[in-house]
Amino acid sequence: GYYEAAARGARKRSARYNVPIYRRPDDLVSVNLGVFSKEFRGRTIAGRVRGGRLVPYADRRRIARGGLKNRALEILWLDDPVDAFFMEIQGSGRVRMDDGSVVRVGFAAKNGHPYTAIGRVLVEMGAMDLGQVSMQSIRAWLAAHPAKARAVMERNKSYVFFREITGDGPIGAEGVAL
What we know:
By secondary structure, this protein is α+β, with helices and mostly antiparallel strands. The protein has helices spanning 60-67, 81-90, 118-124, 135-144, 146-154; strands at residues 5-10, 19-22, 29-32, 44-50, 53-55, 74-78, 92-97, 102-110, 160-165.
């Protein structure tokens, strides 16, 4: 089975819709390390070029706090940062617009930082036991602790960029609709 994350959104930012879903930035570079050495086959890194060198791209915290602002990278605006976070984890989503239409988005790229499961973070914090961790329990904890939710989500430095999907979807890892 495949779960396609759902959210509510709009094409323009407003007081309600203020969480951006970004397209892949032009300065994000992905490098297939396997073309340089067989020992790195199947491994990639991502970053941006500065001064002729590849450096790490902005992490989730920096991006979430405005690191890509004023670059016209927004595809959509959502009304819930937790929905946006889970859409990134899933790599695709369906966004219901106010007019009832649905816009699909799919994975375009990652910022290159490693993924950290926030369920594990919550266990380390003593917020829940390992056996309690599920998407539903994580969502419930984030909703019940809004003052801590942002910091917990920012512990996952990985950030996913999207593209709009037209037609059948979501698109799986093999490039075909699921």
